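Support request from a user on the community tier.

User writes: "When I paste my C-alpha cells into the form, the page sometimes reloads and wipes my input. The last time it worked, I copied everything first. Here is what I submitted, just in case something in the input itself triggers the reload:"
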C-alpha cells in the first residue's frame, strides 16, 4: 500500500513538473517542433504499453468475476439476496450517473479555453469524430461474429457480451473442468496485472512526458479543467455516500443519524487507507457493535461485498468518461450510452480488488472504447486521481455497510437493534 501511495505522489509530482516546465519553456520563446513531438512520442509509447493489456485483462477478469458470483449464489439465500441488492444498486447508480453528470456538466461546464488546452496537450488537438449508426446496425453489432476481430478493433461491448456468454458457460461445466478454466483465466489476469505494474513503474516518466507536452502546447491553461475533473468525480462519490443514509433508513430500518454515527469509524479508516479490503475488519466490527448485525450476516455479506461490489465504480468511472467526452466535444449517441452503461456495470464487478492505478485503466479504458472517447487523457487524469480515490473508498465502505444493514433487516434471524427514524 505504501508503494501505491508513493507512486501516486510521484505521478502527481510528475504532472506538476511537466506542466510547469512546459509552460516555462513555452513562455521563454519559440518552442522547437521536435520537443513536443518527442515528449508526445514517449508518453504515447507508455500509454500503448498499458493499452495492450486491457482486452486480455478485462476478458479474464470477467470470467473469474462471473465464476465468483456464481459460487457466491450457491452459498444460500442470504448470499443470493446480497447479489440481487448489489446488482440493483449498481444498475440504479449507472442510470443516475448519466443523468447527474450530464446535468452537472450542463450547469457547470468546463471552461472552453481550459478544455482546448487539455485536449491539445493530450491528443495534439485531434479527436476522432464518433461514428453514428442506426439502432438496427447497433443491435446487430452487439453479437460478435468474430470475437478476435472485435478485440482487435476495441469493440468492447461485443467482446464483453462474448466474455459473459463464455463465463456463464464455464459455470455450467463439470467441476473439474470449471476449476481448471477459472484457474487458467485467473493466472492470465494475474500475469496481465504484473505487466501493468511493470508499466506503472514508468508512470512518472510517462505522465511527465504527457504533461510536458500539455505545458508546451497550452501552458497552464489545462489546470482549470483538471481541477474541474477532481471536483466532478469526487462529488459523484460523495453523492454515493449521501444516498446510503436514506437507503439504510428506508430499507434497513436504521435512521440516518444513527447510521452516520455507526459507520463513521469505518469511514475514517477508509479515508486514511484508501482500501476497502484493508477496512474490512473495522467494517465487520462496526456492523456487529454499532449496527447490531448478527455475526452470521456480517461474516457473509461484508466479505462478499468487498469481493464483488463497488457502488462508486460505475459512478466515478462513467463520470470520468463523460468528462472526457465533454472536453473533447463528443456527444455520445443513445446506443453508445447504453453500451457504456453495460460495460461499466460488468467491469465494476470484474475489477474489484485490483490496485488503484491498475483498476483505473482496466475499468475506464473499456468504457472509453464503448463511448468513442479518447483514452489519451487517462494518464493525465490518473495523476490527480489520488483525491477522488479517497472518496471512492469511503463511498464503497459506506455502501457495503448500508447493504449489510438492509439484508440484516430482511434476514429471518432475530434483529438485535430496533428500527429508528432519527
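"...and here is what came back when it finally went through:"
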Amino acid at each position: 500500500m505504501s508503494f501505491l501511495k508513493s507512486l501516486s505522489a510521484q505521478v502527481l509530482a510528475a504532472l506538476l513538473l511537466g506542466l510547469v516546465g512546459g509552460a516555462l519553456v513555452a513562455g521563454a520563446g519559440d518552442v522547437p517542433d521536435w520537443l513536443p513531438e518527442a515528449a508526445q512520442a514517449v508518453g504515447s509509447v507508455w500509454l500503448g504499453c498499458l493499452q495492450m493489456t486491457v482486452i486480455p485483462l478485462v476478458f479474464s477478469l470477467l470470467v473469474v468475476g462471473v465464476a465468483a458470483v456464481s459460487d457466491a449464489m450457491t452459498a444460500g439465500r442470504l448470499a443470493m439476496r446480497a447479489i440481487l441488492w448489489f446488482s440493483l444498486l449498481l444498475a440504479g447508480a449507472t442510470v443516475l450517473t448519466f443523468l447527474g453528470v450530464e446535468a452537472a456538466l450542463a450547469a457547470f461546464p468546463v471552461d472552453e479555453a481550459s478544455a482546448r488546452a487539455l485536449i491539445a496537450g493530450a491528443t495534439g488537438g485531434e479527436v476522432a469524430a464518433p461514428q453514428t449508426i442506426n439502432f438496427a446496425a447497433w443491435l446487430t453489432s452487439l453479437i460478435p461474429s468474430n470475437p478476435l476481430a472485435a478485440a482487435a478493433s476495441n469493440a468492447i461491448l461485443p467482446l464483453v457480451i462474448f466474455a459473459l456468454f463464455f463465463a456463464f458457460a464455464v459455470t455450467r461445466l463439470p467441476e473439474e473442468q470449471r476449476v481448471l478454466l477459472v484457474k487458467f483465466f485467473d493466472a492470465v489476469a494475474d500475469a496481465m496485472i504484473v505487466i501493468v505494474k511493470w508499466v506503472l513503474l514508468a508512470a512518472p516518466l510517462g505522465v511527465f512526458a504527457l504533461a510536458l507536452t500539455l505545458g508546451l502546447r497550452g501552458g497552464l491553461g489545462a489546470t482549470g479543467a483538471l481541477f474541474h475533473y477532481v471536483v466532478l468525480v469526487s462529488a459523484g462519490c460523495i453523492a454515493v455516500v449521501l444516498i446510503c443514509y436514506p437507503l439504510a433508513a428506508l430499507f434497513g430500518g436504521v435512521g440516518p443519524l444513527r447510521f452516520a454515527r455507526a459507520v463513521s469509524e469505518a469511514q475514517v479508516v477508509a479515508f486514511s487507507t484508501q482500501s476497502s479490503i484493508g477496512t474490512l475488519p473495522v467494517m465487520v466490527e462496526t456492523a456487529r457493535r454499532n449496527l447490531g448485525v448478527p455475526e452470521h450476516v456480517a461474516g457473509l455479506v461484508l466479505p462478499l461485498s468487498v469481493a464483488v461490489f463497488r457502488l462508486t465504480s460505475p459512478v466515478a468511472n462513467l463520470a470520468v468518461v463523460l468528462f472526457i467526452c465533454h472536453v473533447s466535444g463528443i456527444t455520445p449517441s443513445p446506443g453508445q450510452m447504453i453500451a457504456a452503461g453495460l460495460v461499466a456495470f460488468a467491469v465494476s464487478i470484474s475489477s474489484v480488488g485490483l490496485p488503484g492505478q491498475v483498476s483505473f485503466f482496466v475499468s475506464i479504458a473499456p468504457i472509453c472504447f464503448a463511448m468513442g472517447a479518447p483514452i489519451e487523457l487517462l494518464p493525465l487524469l490518473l495523476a490527480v486521481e489520488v483525491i477522488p480515490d479517497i472518496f471512492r473508498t469511503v463511498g464503497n465502505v459506506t455502501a457495503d455497510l448500508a447493504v449489510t444493514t438492509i439484508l440484516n433487516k430482511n434476514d429471518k434471524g432475530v434483529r438485535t437493534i430496533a428500527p429508528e427514524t432519527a
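Agent notes: The reload is a front-end session timeout and is unrelated to the input. Residues 270 and 278 are 8 Å apart (CA to CA). The chain is about 80% helix and 0% strand. Escalated to web team.
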